[in-house]
Design a protein that fits this description.
It is built from eleven helices and twelve strands. The chain has two domains: 2-101 and 299-318, NAD(P)-binding Rossmann-like Domain (Rossmann fold), CATH 3.40.50; 103-291, NAD(P)-binding Rossmann-like Domain (Rossmann fold, 3-Layer(aba) Sandwich). It is 34% helix and 15% strand. With 329 residues, it is α/β, with parallel strands linked by helices. Helix 4 (103-119) packs across helix 6. The longest helix is centred in the last third of the chain and has 19 residues, at 300-318. The chain has a seven-stranded parallel beta sheet, sandwiched between helices. Strands 2-1-3-4-5 form a five-stranded parallel beta sheet. The two termini are 25 Å apart. Bound molecules: 1,4-dihydronicotinamide adenine dinucleotide (NAI). 1,4-dihydronicotinamide adenine dinucleotide is lined by residues 78-79, 100, 103, 106, 151-157, 174-177, 203-207, 209-210, 231-233, 257-258, 294, 296-297.
């Protein structure tokens, strides 16, 4: 089975090539171009394609893939909000994903962002390198004995909740489907979570229901001086309202691994370019905002698990076996 691997980075190829010999009958062609309407025709002659969070897999791309004979979309990630599932279903294209490659990788990054945004370690590092050992601008707050509010207690939210508990925080959570087995945290309503939490970390998927769940109305319900962290999806936060909230001094700090508009930048080195978007520049201009480039997943363990599960998904499809990681809607 021939699979075209879109949007290849050197680390993708390295981790997939290491495991490919264990999967006879499956071959990958790695290309740097990402999937979009212009590059979708390259899939002609392949049975499947492999794509990531930053690919465009909307209606028009699915139609082109279908005309090219594609029967399988292998998402090498957990999220699939960038895939038009209805269209894939109409064109009899199976969509498989990697549901949980390393929840701890993302949760540990969420805590790293929370700590960096809070204690300004990124600034302290630069200052000390410049022989500036003064502490002005570096004051943070303790997490110990504060309240962490986790929105979405799936695999990553649970890992983050455990980390927060380890920090000596009281952990409260909001989820559409509370997990009764989690006895170390307390489920509350979304409004209660917003009003009680000192640290809010977002871990629910981006759906129609969660789109812009953090907006003016919900920001107003938060405690003054709250720390907000988003490692889930940019669309959970209405950026213009977040910027207004930051200007109103609502937030002690904000840590973002994901943000609206990221698709145009993420995983690209644009350091020599003049960016046309003003939103990201505005966010970067605030002293209490720390941004990373959708790297929550980026650990050796996670990349190994992603390659392994993606290859298992391809093998199951090839052998006509049960597709346990199929996304149906
Ligand atoms: P999961 O499916 O295990 O958990 C999601 C949880 O959110 C579930 O408990 C679900 O009941 C809950 N939920 C769904 N709708 C909700 C709503 N309206 N309100 C409150 N809770 C709701 O997913 P997992 O593996 O924990 O991943 C969470 C998200 O993290 C993914 O959807 C993805 O967007 C993001 N992610 C980010 C990565 C990064 O590199 N920054 C890497 C991997 C995932």
């Amino acid at each position: 089975m021939k699979i075209l691997f879109y949007g290849t980075k050197n680390y993708d190829e390295q981790f997939f090539q290491k495991l490919l010999p264990e999967y006879p009958g499956i071959s990958f062609q790695f290309i740097e171009a990402n999937l979009c309407p212009e590059t979708a025709p390259l899939s002609s002659g392949y049975e499947g394609i492999c794509a990531f969070v930053n690919a465009d897999i909307g209606t028009s791309v699915i139609e082109i893939l279908s005309r090219c004979g594609i029967r399988l979309i292998l998402m090498r990630c957990a999220g699939y909000n960038n895939v038009d599932l209805a269209s894939a279903h109409t064109h009899h294209i199976k969509v498989l994903r990697v549901p949980g490659y390393s929840p701890e990788a993302v949760a540990e990054h969420a805590m790293a962002l929370a700590l960096t945004a809070n204690r300004h370690t990124h600034k302290a590092y630069i200052k000390c390198r410049e022989n500036n050992f003064a502490l002005n601008g570096l004051m943070g707050v303790n997490f110990y004995h504060k309240t962490a509010g986790i929105i979405g207690t799936g695999k990553i939210g649970l890992a983050m909740a455990r980390i927060c508990q380890g920090f000596g925080m009281r952990v409260i959570a909001y989820d559409l489907y509370p997990d009764k087995k989690l006895d170390f945290l307390t489920y509350v309503s979304l409004d209660e979570l917003l009003s009680f939490s000192d640290l809010i970390s977002l871990h629910c998927p981006l759906t129609e229901q969660t789109h812009h769940m953090i907006r003016q109305e919900t920001i107003e319900k938060m405690k003054d001086g709250v720390i907000l962290v988003n490692t889930s999806r940019g669309g959970l936060i209405k950026t213009s309202d977040l910027i207004a909230g930051i200007r109103d001094h609502k937030f002690f700090a904000v840590g973002l691994d994901v943000y609206e508009e990221e698709t145009a930048f993420v995983y690209e080195d644009l350091s020599e370019r003049i960016l046309q978007s003003s939103t990201i520049q505005r966010l970067l201009s605030f002293p209490n905002v720390t941004i990373t480039s959708h790297q929550g997943f980026f650990t050796e363990e996670a990349l190994t698990n992603i390659a392994e599960t993606t290859l298992q998904n391809a093998q199951a499809f090839m052998n006509g076996e049960e597709l346990k990681n199929e996304v149906t809607g």
